[in-house]
Write a structure and sequence with these properties.
The protein is an alpha/beta fold. The protein has 20 helices and 16 strands. Helix 1 runs antiparallel to helix 9, helix 3 packs antiparallel against helix 4 and helix 6 packs parallel to helix 9.
Length: 545
Amino acid sequence: MPQTADDMDAVAVRTWCSLALEALGRERAAIDAINVYPVADGDTGTNLYLTVESAAGAVEAVFAGHETGASVPALADAVRAMAHGALIGARGNSGTILAQLLRGMAGVLADGHDADHLRLALTRAATAARQAVAHPVEGTVLTVATAAAEAAGRTAGDPSARAVVQAAYEGARTALDATPGQLAVLGRAGVVDAGGRGLVTVLEALVEAVSGEAPEHGTWVTPDIAPVTTAAADDCAAGGPQDGPAFEVIYLLEAGDDAVDRLRTRLDGLGDSLVVVGGDGLWNVHVHVDDAGAAVEAGVEAGRPYRIRITHFGADRVHRHHGEPAQRGVVVVVPGPGLSGLCSEAGATTVLARPGEPPASGELVDAIRRAHAREVVLLPNDAELRHTAAAAAEQARTEGIRVALIPTRAAVQGIAALAVHEPDHSFDEDVVAMTAAAGATRYGELAVAERQSWTMAGICQAGDILGLIEGDVAVIGEDVPGTARAVIDRMLAAGGELVTLVLGEDVPDALADALEEHVREGYLAVDTVVYRGGGQGTPLLIGVE
């Protein structure tokens, strides 16, 4: 049922996030196409999508915690989750600013949901975003956010939440139309600000979430904006942002307010496009610099940086595709840089899954696009990614890419599938062969128990080495070598011709040598292959086929 015009509760927040994510999914490519400021790297729509996807996921987690009860979450819990999710998932300059806008709104909406609180929330959001940017520039998303807040303020006295968000939306649209006249780089390219357009999309979703109806556009007409070609982007940026720093550095930071104030000063001296958002000990830091190492070191001095992402703008431009797409590509999710290099050498496009940081669907869609092929085989290599991968495949199909999702549940299954990949065969034949190879590979892994708990193999204690086969604990051991041998023996009891070992980052090569010898002495005609996996969160992955 549509909500009333004065509803802004947890359900409305959930609906807002869902509608915004859906709308940004539709608009992503169009927003990417007009991205010329602060760097013409064509990723603003994608960054906004990934940021909102993280926010929506956090809100869904709050609702999941209430599934067994009769009540829904409190509004305060929902908006705080939305803000936190956006903060930890913010991507790029635009995503970081959007995260601060949502945080500013959440701080007010946690205390109330009526029209007065909505007006104040929009004002607080615009103010917080400006304060987060080291050197605010007019004609950007900041201008659009301010216009939205001012338009909402002009509804003072109107008790309708619908009127507040509709006014904010209209004010944002009008301000967006004016951005080419405020920022020269936009005027030269003949486009509106990409971040501002993304914010208008998010506000449009807010109108529908509050009122239950798509917003009324009034007499405002969307300008006819053509996508920016690479040449136009380079021309409009000549002598400007495109000639700026070479790297974009983003990281989450655990630090106190005083340390962050010093960090802002330090980073402002290192580069530009500095945005620091957050609070209460957790921050998202975004900056463009020539010395990426110095930007990270500054974060280390301030506190504990993590989820560090460094993008080389030049490399990004070099890797853009302008020619005819290949007939077929493979996208593989890998748990560490070692396997990433291995799969890249085999011609695959890789997505790195760090421990505790599974890739979002937007990252998988982006990887499918980077594969630049008419047909793509997607190998998620994790049972927990099946829904995310399915969503990514479906979105890519709407863009005309033929995608086959092979539900690989472990990296060793992905390796087996990639080993039989034959791009010269028909797509169906290739997918069938890769699926068969993955399905014929049993998988195991070692993990360290974090606490005492019940398992399929009995009670484990914190620090025990767990040997898992097909996701279930089969062996509880005291050390890595002994547990690994026991797991291999159990897996080979059902037969096998090849054992694949993927070593974790800190595991010595001597372990692989010992396990190879164990297989050679105990199992005739069984071969062993060893890969160095990199920074995965497990000491050893095992495959038997």
